[in-house]
Amino acid sequence: MTPSVLDGYDPQGFYCEMLRSPASRAVRERLASLSIEAVKQRATNANAELYNLGITFTVYSDAKTIDRILPFDVIPRVLSGEEWRHIESGIIQRITAINLLLDDIYHEQHLLRDGIVPADLILGNRNYRPLMRGLDLPHKTTDIVRDEHGAFLVLEDNARTPSGVSYVVENRHLMLRAFPDLLNDIGLRPIENYGARLISALHEIAPAGVSDPRVVLLSPGAYNSAYFEHVFLAREMGVPLVEGRDLLVEDDRVFMRTTGGLSRVDIIYRRIDDDYLDPDAFLPESMLGVPGLMRAYRAGNLALANAVGTGVADDKAVYAYMPRIIRYYLTEEPILQNVETHICREPGALRYTLDNLAGLVVKPVGEAGGYGITVGPKASRRELDECRAKLLADPSNYISQPCVKLSVAPTLVDGCVEPRHVDLRPFAVTGSSTWVLPGGLTRVALRRGSLVVNSSQGGGSKDTWVVA
Questions:
Q1: Which residue of 44, 344, 428, 437 has the smallest Cβ count within 10 Å?
Q2: Nearest-angstrom CA–CA distance, 422 and 113
Q3: In 10 A of CB 232, how many CB atoms?
């Protein structure tokens, strides 16, 4: 008898939805009818299609292979409708609290005066923008893991320009083509309307008096790691994709250069960090932004999404206070719990971290992409010594967390199906209400035993199925 895909699969004691969730039964049964050779062939075809479509990301640290496809695993991750409702409600609650936090810290600062969060943690944060004080921010994601008990935990927040939604949609397209026999009649929630939701939310924040706003997507350009996504989103929304050199500001209004002359711009969906957005307001040497952009913004002639200054909510030290922030603004208990976090700027937390370094994960507060992380249980003596020196030199720059036993998913690696650790990056669009894309991006740590799922660190992705 030809071996099927899940024959011999062993999650090695970790939580695995494919084996534990009733929602996965139909998919398990269908996978059982497929031979490993058939799945390998379909996986080869799917990854070849990624190359042909140019679905890539950029790794700046590798001089040999700068543009890569995001490795795609064809065995889907399956969540039940009930599991998704829990995640969805937790995300909406958290985003609501983050929006209230951002509005407060740029206006009355009640939270700081009431001592819920240390004032210097916010006001001294490198992503806090005093220029935004007194400005009303328009309506405004979060990485989630699952522990060994199956509980969903928030790993970090992403409030600026989180990338990955293009891979969610393209992964689904690939699965529809490669595995239609798996998807038929299982009650799969659709994900194709992200672009329509995003453009609708952007129209809601149009400047006063503008009934038919002109929207553009501002990208750093083709050398940016997420440029494929910028092209994808501009196409999905039906808006021009521009770079800083395509825009100019005159009389505190923004215009786009076109072959027919200057065209007014009312809303910018920007994929450029604050620092590079406007050389007149932030980094003078920036060649990516538009001089005068913030003047147009402050004059009320331009809407920006996401708003400038939202990076405070991304900070991993601020993350540690999110349960308190939710209780403060919403008088509710958090639906999704944080991973236990020690803020090394606090002497007791620093002492605990130094005493237990070999058992903790240490993260710099402002980094993204998995850079700068020390995973204590997997670190060498030299790596632990280097981490200790960095902690002592600049404790405010670090947090530490216990090493969560992340859940796993069956993953096709080198022709065999093995458990690999996963997380989940949901995507939400917030306007007058908040909508969460059903499923999101499951990121998978392809290296055996690795807990780091980031694409820049060798991670891949899976299609995430929310089924009825």
A1: 44
A2: 39
A3: 20
Pairwise CA distance, residues 241 & 248, whole Å:
15
Neighbours of 234 (CB within 10 A): 21
**Is a pLDDT exceeding 90 seen at residue 147?**
no
Could you read off the pLDDT of 80-127 as tens digits, one per residue?
999 999 999 999 999 999 999 999 999 999 999 999 999 999 999 889
Outline where 159-292 has alpha helix (H): 165-178, 180-183, 194-204, 227-237
The first and second tokens of residue 97, run together, are 């609290």
The tokens describing 221, both together, are 């350009």
Residues in the chain: 468
On whether the CB atoms of residues 29 and 6 are closer than 8 A, the answer is no
pTM: 0.90
> What are φ and ψ of residue 461, in 5° steps?
-145, 165
- The amino acid at 333: E
What phi-psi label fits residue 293: left (phi over 0), alpha (psi between -120 and 50 degrees) or beta? alpha
Alpha carbon distance 169, 439 (integer Å): 10
Exposed e or buried b for every residue in 405-422, given b needs 16+ CB within 10 A?
bbbbbbbbbeeebbbbbb
Residues 6+ apart with CB under 8 A from 70: 50, 55, 56, 57, 167, 455, 460, 461
Number of Cβ atoms within 10 Å of the Cβ of 175? 21
